[in-house]
From TrEMBL:
InterPro entries: 26kDa_periplasmic_antigen (IPR052022), SIMPL/DUF541 (IPR007497)
Keywords of the record: Signal
Signal peptide feature range: 1-24
Gene3D superfamilies in the cross-refs: Protein of unknown function (DUF541), domain 1, Protein of unknown function (DUF541), domain 2
KW Glycoprotein (keyword) present: no
Descriptive protein name: SIMPL domain-containing protein
Species in which this protein is naturally found: Candidatus Accumulibacter proximus
Single GO BP term: DNA damage response
Amino acid sequence: MTSFRPLLKAIPLLALLCATPATAATAGHVTTIDLAAEASRPAANDLARATVFAEASGAAPGDLARRVNSLIADGLKTARGYSSIKTQSGGTHTYPVYGKGNRIEGWRMRSELTLESADSAALSELLGKLQGSLGVANLAMLPAPETRKKAENEAMIDALGAFKARAKVIADAFGKPYRISHLTISSSGRPPPMPIMRAAALASADAAPMPVEPGDTLISATVSGKIELPE
């Protein structure tokens, strides 16, 4: 007679082995929650940047080039008197002026210089001197790279702290621990626009320094990610 006792003893062990994977899957199940937090820090606008230009119109491109190049050369000569100001040649463009019948009636040429300095007072003084012959296309106050980086790092630390605080509030509400499974960090911040007078007004201005108010740029950092709560 065949005995089934060993087989009966093996059935509970087989059932246990079959149940183990299902138990592990349940224990490993998590609830995923998307979160985001933001923080900001002010960064001093300690770098001034301006673009000045010479522009002329006429019938002969060669004559225009001589006039514009002469104005730019004079501007460079004046700018070189300020050791704290970095000067760089910008773009030069010549384009036709069309009249009736879509025929070319003349030419217009424009050439630019870019000026940059941490000494806003010196740049303001230089712009005042250049205004008699050159127009000012734009003037911006912005954080120097090292100043911006410092504010970005501080804002990032604040945003990370805010993210973790939010994660803890949610985890505590569920009565569970949490784990950060993914993080993305980004930063942003632009200086406020500085209004510039029209070139025609600048061309007739005297040598008074251009008023400059540096102010601050608000640098923001955003942390977004996912947290996991075990079931």
